[in-house]
Amino acid sequence: QLCSGPGWMGPGQPELVGGQPCPQGYLDNITAIGPRTVGSPENEVLTVNYLIQQIKAIETESTDAHKIFVDIQRPTGSFSIDFLGGFTSYYANITNVVVKLEPRGGAEHAVLSNCHFDSVPNTPGASDDAVSCSVMLEILYTLSKSPEPLQHAVIFLFNGAEENILQASHGFITQHEWAKSIRAFINLEAAGVGGKELVFQTGPENPWLVQAYVFAAKHPFASVVAQEIFQSGIIPADTDFRIYRDFGNVPGIDLAFIENGYIYHTKYDTSDRILTDSIQRAGDNILAMLKYLATSDMLAKSFEYRHGNVVFFDVLGLFVLAYPARVGTIMNYIIAAIAFLYLGKKVFQPKNRAINNLKKFFTAFGLILLSWISTLVTALIVAVFISLVGRSLSWYTHFYVSVFLYGTAAVVKLILVHSLAKKFYYKNTNDQYLGDVFFDASLMIWSILLAMITHIGLCSAFICTLWVAFPLLTKLMIHEEFRQKGATMKFVVMYMLGMFVPYLYMMYLNWTVFEMFTPIMGRSGSEIPPDVVLAGFIVASTMILSSYFINFIYLVKSTKTTLITLTAVFLVTLILVCSGIFFPYSSDAANPKPKRVFLQHMNRRFHDLDGNVVKSDSGIWINGFDYNGISHITPHVPEINDSIRTPCEEWAPFCGLPWILPVHFMFRKNWYLPASAIFPESPIHFEVLTKELTPWNSVRLSFEVSGE
Q1: pLDDT score for 1
Q2: Residue 148, class by beta-carbon neighbours within 10 Å (0-12 exposed, 13-18 middle, 19+ buried)?
Q3: Helices 489-520 & 530-546, crossing angle to 10 degrees?
Q4: Is 650 a catalytic residue?
Q5: The whole model's pTM is what?
Q6: What is the mean pLDDT of the chain?
């Protein structure tokens, strides 16, 4: 199905075919094929045939300004990757559908756009990653219909083996003849279903790519914070970005849908859940980026612009601020120095009171740190208690529960510590003086953090810059009001206006972080208590957002009503959570939040180093993807209970279970229900061919396995 007219990605309303936008038609047709696991007919034949059919139809309608070349690549190879502890991946005859759009006179350089059409088992894979391939088909059509020739080629890679860890991209970038011409790439991924696509990786270095996104993207959504979180390894995931970066030495941009990660990699990831607005938005951004890069002189000379990192972040989705990291470093140190000079002047003048001022300043500094530590400990104790009583993830479907439980506990403890300090330690001290001192102490903490994070080299230090620069400006503008008795309305209004920018941005950033991380807690394994992680996030948010409001505790007459109200909310929520009223999961057809359970019927045979069978059995391997394990399943399926929990076979690789990825350390809790043996049409044959003792005291085995 092809759009008529100027193309769907143009201005105005989408062109329609059969009542649907073209990318939506592509998406529906690809997902209608069903799950597309690598090696299956659905992936290797049906989807490939569909893509070729659509590409050929696009080719027939292209203008004379362009040439279109199509190639089906079936590479074989292997590579080692430092991911999940490191492993070597081997692949054979996987499938890539590669399309090159270039000007009629040819092109020496190219920009790559990458998606993958394979999916994990048991999911239509609409968001991951059929929607990206659908958008790429429509972009190919739009560019090919343009009468204006491009300066460089655009290569569209529809890769057929990403889910089994990035194999098709490796086969392309290391073996395909067109790969040598690529100077930059855009990788389209998903960690959720629809919504806005987040730029969460760029580079390495090559700041001109970020500038290209800043200039071209119509609906920007990008954050260097997301980049540094992802590249830290906290999130156990990876994308084809790594392959192009590490094996192709090509810079690029990584984008992913992040909304509604609850149904990512599940049967609910269907085309009807991806809104047309999300597809339109992604298409607008990617088309604009590809057109910009394919007509840019910088692409051909990208090696001249390769050095230096860049600080980048969008402002409420309206525009992106980006500047070189070295400029950010200088700016950060200057702002920190100004803050230190201001604080030094406050503390050491007049000189005859310097020691007394210094003592009071560091007392306030210590009290803030003490309140933060005690707040963290309190929230973690509650989280551990919830985990021990078997009520983990009570907030998974009802996020407000986490705010009422851990948020109120954090705020109560924070207010309580400072209220007690005010009552017993500062009982004869002027309130206005205390408000002034605690504001300065918070400013000192943020200034130290700014200097430290900048020294480490993290671009995310710009957040600290906001929390130093704007409060310092606010203080300088209303320093007289700080000395007036009581918190007047004028003072409060001016204070809030001065703090508006850092607080607004922090709330926006918090939304992004919780949008990404909350669903991940439902698939983060059986070893990490998700309530502890989420409580930590909420406490961190509380610390940040309260840092310049602690001084108000010392300015108001009493915090008793606030403490009683918040404590009541906490206790009621705690009782309700412990009663089990908040079931973690939801089967709501409109907004499901399912529990992830992995089941695999299998035969197991354990061989010794001589190839002899030492143990064999058959059964259903059951694995819960979250901390709750099977506790919510046993009441409904009594046969699945802790009596069939299987211990780790420490002497065997991966605990004796057939993990296709080395993630066994994340899933130590496994259940094994004895079941009848499987009798494949072609029996499995295993034979040890050679055995060799290496100089480093390990055994190298060569063996042969056949069957299907």
Answers
A1: 37
A2: exposed
A3: 160
A4: no
A5: 0.91
A6: 90
